[in-house]
Write a structure and sequence with these properties.
With about 350 residues, the protein is an alpha+beta fold. It has helices spanning about 5-15, 25-30, 50-60, 65-85, 90, 95-100, 210-225, 230-245, 260-285, 295-320, 320-325, 330-335, 345-355; strands at about 105, 125, 130-140, 150-155, 165-170, 175-180, 190-205, 205-210, 250, 255. The protein has 3 domains: about 5-100, Acyl-CoA dehydrogenase/oxidase, N-terminal domain (Butyryl-Coa Dehydrogenase, subunit A, domain 1, Orthogonal Bundle); about 105-210, Butyryl-CoA Dehydrogenase, subunit A, domain 2; about 225-355, Butyryl-CoA Dehydrogenase, subunit A, domain 3.
Length: about 350
């Protein structure tokens, strides 16, 4: 594995980190929304590692972590599955998804089914030259504002998790009803809500492919690449903590001169660098077409837990200011907690790792 970055990688990341102002269209212009989609379909054609570097840079530069998270959900769970499994007609949506004209949402999770794809209750029943979808999807990132949904439904109840199919559904399709955004602990820049299908008729060509294969492909990239956001966030937060403890004085001394303080920051950096290496290895495995399930599970686990602990440390280092809203420190903690849940909880990552280890 090569640890040095090429000139192209450095320039790309510098441009994203230093963009200054960020919104959805700007992320499209910067190539974030279509990083891993082929150039032919409007993307940048980057591999997993280069895509992770893009999201790490965006996580560092953009202080709205929820917005970058929304971009990750859009790319890895919608644009990338369409690029990999979609028909020529479905791929016509990719340029709009890459430049930000269209917003994508992944409608997978249900009230009683999250990581367990075999427990889905949403159904797609054959009707004429298409399907009729019925069911409720919960916690759909970008759901309230999306133009395109990749959703999953049971088409063969007897086949378990292999009996599901992925579908590409436009927001204006009759029978598709989406909720207003609901409140949540953090990542407020990413609106989320429920999406319901009530006798929602879609054509035959809305089918994307075997649901299990489509979902696992997108989820592998998501676990490996999306969580690079939290690497950039942690780097920025550690820099802010270092500046704070070098300026702040207590008992006539700078906080940085107290060993308990300096050790805490060293531990923050250690977690960041360790998680970064695991994430880069997972992305490298994807690029090499190696089995990336174990490294992706370990990296997602390490990055998400490091983000929470580092945010907790930052709150303590800033003391009362860290606990106050408006300082931007407690927001890091609220945004980090979601990482323990999305893309499979920490317990799910441990289960995946255990299975890969033959346990």
């Amino acid at each position: 594995m090569e640890f040095g970055r090429t000139a192209a990688q450095r320039d790309r990341c510098r441009t994203i980190r230093d963009a200054g102002e960020y919104d959805w269209q700007r992320l499209g212009e910067l190539g974030v929304l279509g990083a891993a989609v082929s150039v032919e379909h409007g993307g940048r054609g980057l591999g997993a590692l280069d895509t992770a570097l893009v999201f790490e840079a965006a996580g560092y530069g953009c202080h709205d972590t929820g917005l970058v998270f929304a971009a990750g959900a859009h790319l890895f769970a919608v644009a990338l599955p369409i690029a990999e499994f979609g028909s020529d007609a479905q791929k016509k949506k990719l340029p709009g998804l890459c430049d930000g004209t269209l917003i994508g949402a992944n409608a997978m999770t249900e009230p009683d089914a999250g990581s367990d794809i075999g427990a889905l209750k949403t159904t797609a029943v054959r009707s004429g030259n298409g399907y009729v979808l019925n069911g409720v999807k919960s916690f759909v990132s970008n759901g309230p504002i999306a133009d395109v949904y990749v959703t999953y439904a049971v088409t063969d109840p007897k086949a378990g998790h292999l009996g599901t199919t992925g579908f590409v559904v436009d927001a204006g399709t009759p029978g598709l009803v989406r909720s207003e955004p609901f409140g949540k602990l953090g990542l407020n820049g990413c609106s989320a809500g429920t999406v319901e299908f009530h006798d929602c008729a879609v054509a035959e060509d809305a089918a994307l492919g075997n649901g299990s294969l489509v979902f696992q492909h997108g989820m592998l990239w998501e676990r490996a690449c999306l969580f690079a956001i939290y690497l950039g966030v942690q780097e920025r937060l550690i820099e802010r903590c270092i500046t704070h403890v070098k300026r702040r004085k207590q008992f006539g001394r700078r906080l940085s001169t107290f060993q308990s303080v300096s050790n805490r920051i060293v531990d923050m950096q250690l977690r960041l660098e360790s998680a970064r290496l695991l994430l880069y290895k997972a992305c490298w495995a994807i690029d090499q077409d190696d089995d990336a399930v174990l490294p992706a599970a370990l990296s997602k686990l390490a990055v998400s837990q490091a983000a929470v602990q580092t945010a907790l440390d930052a709150v303590e280092l800033f003391g009362g200011r860290g606990y106050q809203t408006g300082e931007g420190i407690e927001e890091h903690l609220r945004d980090a907690v979601g990482g323990l849940i999305f893309s499979g909880t920490s317990d799910i990552q441990r289960q995946l790792a255990a299975l890969e280890l033959g346990l």
